[in-house]
Structure formats: structure tokens, C-alpha cells
Amino acid sequence: MPVRDRVMVKAPQALSKPPYNQGVLKLKGLSVIESCTHTQGTKGTLFLEDHLLLFVLEGMYTVRFGNQEYTVRKNEMILLQKSIVVEYEKSGDPDSQYLLDYMMFFLKDEVLREFVKQADYKSSYPAHLAPVCVHPINERLISYLESLKPYFNETEKISDGLVKLKLLEPLFDVADANHQFLLQFLQLKHKTRKDIAEVIEDNYMNPVSISDLAYLSGRSLSSFKREFQAMYNTSPLQWIRNRRLDKAEELLTHSNLSVTDICFTTGFENVAHFSKVFKERFGYPPSALKKA
User: Fold this and answer.
1) pLDDT by residue (tens digit) across 21-64?
2) 3-class state of residue 61 by DSSP
3) What local confidence, expressed as pLDDT, does residue 3 receive?
4) Of the candidates 56, 114, 115, the residue with the CA atom closest to the CA atom of residue 90
5) pLDDT tens column, 249-269
6) Which pLDDT value is given to residue 93?
7) What pLDDT, on the 0 to 100 scale, is given for residue 30?
8) How far is residue 70 from each of residues 79, 157, 190, 196, measured CA to CA in Å?
9) Any residues with CB less than 8 A from the CB of 256 and at least 6 apart, and which?
10) Is residue 248 within 8 Å of 266, Cβ to Cβ?
11) How far is CA 177 from CA 137, 166, 189, in A?
């Protein structure tokens, strides 16, 4: 599927802006996005800048990152770490006119630290990594999520203190209801660096910037560039461009995709620029292999 059909959105900041315009509640370190809509299938890509706690009340929300795929159905939840790129597919319940109703809690590290401090958990880090899993929502959490909906209609009238209490509440409910989720919260609190090679291989065909890749790897931009240069003996920008062009040449030769589709599929966002750099690398334009 061409990238132009699933433009990558940085979450949560872009989800409250056009064309999304979803309901949003904000507190320092925490944003809640509410969406209640009708859809028979919507796909896209999210760059998670914060940790994501996703609840589905109606319909189905599927997320994919790397070779992992998780489908969150009615009255289920999932917790995903920040600094990853996920593909999503949303579909409504056919028995309810394809209604899709969900809430996304985006958690910054400071919120997790405050939660763990207030909860007074003895262990600062789990002895073993808790796997990502989809879990059912209990009746208490369902009631909580329904009670939160009126807040989205009067965000200007609610005090920050009340918002803080209301938005921290589900973290305690989730951790209390499911020990596996508690372990996940604790491991999210532990900042880790990712392998540069893994990050670059997973994302070189996504329309991400070098700054995004540095963030995904858990490094500053300068550290990322320095370590990348030492590993590959070239700059990240040059390596990514060449890798994308090699993939484009392969697709032009062995697929039925047009030049335009291959341009967007391999992470380029402008066909004219794609054709120019392709010719610089291979000595002939992409149209020599396939007509657009």
C-alpha cells in the first residue's frame, strides 16, 4: 500500500488537529484522545511520541509494529511503549452501523513516575520484561471510560486539579486489575536504548526524519549521527536514500506498481525528486524500467 494512503501522523499532537479533530483532554504529561465514529475500515500510520494506553469500547482497532500484530476488540485494552512507528487499522461493529468507539491515553515518562510514586510500588523495575498483550476491561474500567465522556464537551470549564485526578484514575484501576499491566508500567519507566541497526531497518521506508529515527533509538540527534557514521561509514541520510533507491529499483523490475506508487511506497514524498535521485544513482530514470 503506498505511503500516501497512510500518511504517518505524530501522536498525540497531530490527532487533535485537522483533519482528525478528535476530542482531547490535556494535562501536563498526559493527553487523552476520544473518537466515536462510523467506519468500515480506516488505515494509517502513527509515530508514538508518548506511551499509549488504548481502550476499545465498540468495534476493533488493530496495531502492527515490526512483525507483531495486536487486535483490540470491544471492551479490551493494550499498552504500547513510546518511540515506535505503528500501522493501524480501524473498523466499526457491523451490528451497530459500523460504530467504532475508543479512547487513547498518551502517557509521558513524568506521569508514569508520578503514578509509580503515588502507588508506592516496592519494585522499581520488574525482574523480567512483561510481554505486550491485549487484555479485557473490567466493569469498573468500562464505567470509568463512560464517565469521562462528558468532560470532552466542556474542557474549558474543568479545573486542572479535577482533570489530573480523573486522568490518573485509570492507571490505578488498570494496575490493580491486572498484574501484567503493572509490570508493563514499571518496565516503561525504565528508559532503554534501542539498537540503531534494528531501528533503521524497521523504519527506512517510512517517511521519518533523522530526528525521528534518533528519538526512536533513544538517542540525541548528535549521538545518533555519530554512532551511525561509525557503524556504516556514511551519513544516515545517504544510507537511507540509497537503501530506498535500491528497493525502488527492485520494485520497478519485479512488481506491477507504477513509478508514482513506488515513489511513495519507498518513503519518497515527491515524484520529481524521486526520479532525479534515482537517475543520479543508476544513470537512467525510473521510467526506463516502467511507465508511470
Assistant:
1) 578 887 777 888 888 888 888 888 888 888 899 999 999 999 99
2) strand
3) 37
4) 56
5) 999 998 888 999 899 888 888
6) 87
7) 81
8) 11, 37, 23, 25
9) none
10) yes
11) 9, 18, 19
Map residue 288 onto helix, strand or coil.
helix
Task: Judge whether 121 and 189 are in contact, CB under 8 Å.
Answer: no
Which long-range contacts (C-beta less than 8 Å, at least 24 apart) are formed by 240-248? 240/200, 240/204, 240/267, 241/277, 242/281, 243/204, 244/204, 244/205, 244/268, 245/277, 245/278, 245/281, 245/282, 247/205, 248/274, 248/278, 248/286
User: Is the previous residue joined to 2 through a cis bond, with omega within 30 degrees of 0?
Assistant: no
Confirm if 90 and 98 have CB atoms less than 8 A apart.
no
C-alpha cell at 215: 528519538
Burial of residue 28, with CB atoms counted within 10 A of its CB: 0-12 exposed, 13-18 middle, 19 or more buried: exposed
| Exposed / middle / buried, residue 118 (Cβ in 10 Å: 0-12, 13-18, 19+) | exposed
Place of cell 505503528: 86
Question: Residue 2's pLDDT is what?
Answer: 38
In the predicted model, residues of the chain with pLDDT beneath 50 are 1-6, 292
- What's the CA gap between 268 and 263, in Å, rounded? 5
